[in-house]
Amino acid sequence: MENFTSIYDQYISRIYRFIFLKVGTRDVAEDLCSEVFLRVYEKYKASDIQNIQAFLYQTARNRVIDYYRDRSRNATIPLYDIHEEDGFGRTDDILGQAIVNSEMEHVHKALKKIHSDYQDLIIWRYVDELTTGEIAQISNKSEGAVRVALHRALKALRDELASVSKHV
């Protein structure tokens, strides 16, 4: 088994980014990310985890679900809270930043309107750049089922983006 410190170093950015995109605020994402790694560490000490990446993402996904269930509220990403260290690019050009913020706002609004499972798939595939095989392990589905679900998720996102664009 790998040393847990190397596991932490390898996955902290990805898990944080996944949680951040789901909850929308830096403070909450940091807290939930810490809780995820603490839970995984406790499990890591007690037993042999076969696929650490899948276990981390599943734990993060469950913690986000618990967060929303406990608070029963919807959070949005405040655009001023997005920073380079959050895994997003940053531009010094004010007009360029305004365009990026506007596009991010449209995507975020559309993403929040699609099913949570679709949100996860899109984040894992296109933000974290996981393979369909890795996503299949995380979600306990076959690779074929993941491909179909990704296709449906992208269609749902495209439809929502079109809807959001019409209302702007």
TrEMBL record:
Top-level taxon of the source organism: Bacteria
Domain RNA polymerase sigma-70 region: 7-73
RNA polymerase sigma factor 70 region 4 type domain mapped to chain residues: 107-157
GO biological process: DNA-templated transcription initiation
Any GO molecular function: sigma factor activity
CDD domains the record matches: Sigma70_r4 (cd06171)
Keyword DNA-binding in annotation: yes
SUPFAM superfamilies according to UniProt: Sigma2 domain of RNA polymerase sigma factors, Sigma3 and sigma4 domains of RNA polymerase sigma factors
UniProt keyword annotations, A-Z: DNA-binding, Sigma factor, Transcription, Transcription regulation
Keyword Transferase set for record: no
Similarity comment: family membership: Belongs to the sigma-70 factor family. ECF subfamily.
The protein's name: RNA polymerase subunit sigma-24
Native species: Candidatus Wildermuthbacteria bacterium RIFCSPHIGHO2_02_FULL_45_25
Taxonomic lineage of the native organism: Bacteria, Candidatus Wildermuthiibacteriota
